Amino acid sequence: MKKQTLNNHPINELLQQRWSPRAFSEKPVEKEKLQSILEAARWAPSAYNEQPWRFIVGIKGDGTWDRICETLVEWNRQWACKAPVLILNIGKKTHEYNGKNNVTFKYDTGQAVAMMVTEAVNQGLFSHQMSGFDAEKAAELFNVPDDYQVISVTAIGYYGNPDELPEDMYKSEMEERKRKSLKELVFSGKFGEQSEWV
Ligand SMILES: Cc1cc2nc3c(=O)[nH]c(=O)nc-3n(C[C@H](O)[C@H](O)[C@H](O)COP(=O)(O)O)c2cc1C
Q: pTM surpassing 0.90?
């Protein structure tokens, strides 16, 4: 299902088409497609090329998927546990080269996930990221070492039937995508000063 995106300026089609649905189909995702999605994340840029991202991939029917689903808050569980793929996004908090804190580990991991969800669109798939989950429980369930942080979960799959969603979710599923204007986001001179470029 396509959602209307009212761009003010033209952008890449994959970026334009991405949105975060809740109506996932239970249709399995082909292994090759999932591999391409993970490969896209692998090529993300990162500070010192540290590549601090790690992913735990759960496929419906395996114990990993069950445990990721278990960590989600009830509201997310209602829709996300229909998706055939659930991925736990994890970042390494310290630098490999000197053991000191890596201040950009979340930034870098977020970029890798952004690449992943863009590739998902390229593969004809949909994704929905979540922070509504119990990160401590996830770390425990998956033996995540102390110098790593579980950051988010991504649901991936084909589009399903929105009519099966509860009323509040159906409503937001059908809503137009909303964004702040570039004027609110982009400045020149000092912070808050309008830029002539937007
Ligand atoms: C880090 C992150 C955490 C999010 N957490 C949740 C969540 O717990 N539950 C949910 O339904 N959506 C969640 N979302 C989805 C956002 O609400 C969604 O991306 C935003 O409304 C923009 O919509 P779009 O992705 O369709 O453009 C999250 C997105 C991100 C990037």
A: yes
Q: Which helix (H) or strand (E) holds 89?
A: strand 85-92
- The alpha carbon of 96 and the centre of ligand 1 are apart by a number of angstroms equal to 30
Contact by Cβ (8 Å): 66, 58: yes
Are 51 and 60 within 8 A, CB to CB? no
Residue 168: what residue type? D
Q: How far is the CA of 100 from the centre of ligand 1 (A)?
A: 31
Q: In the structure, how many helices (H) and strands (E) does the chain have?
A: 8, 4
The amino acid occupying position 176 is E
Closest atom of ligand 1 to CA, residue 21: 26
Average per-residue pLDDT in the chain?
97
pLDDT tens for each residue of 47-64: 999 999 999 999 999 999
Domains of the chain, earliest start first: 13-162 (3.40.109.10)
Expressed in angstroms and rounded, the spacing between residue 111 Cα and the centre of ligand 1 is: 15
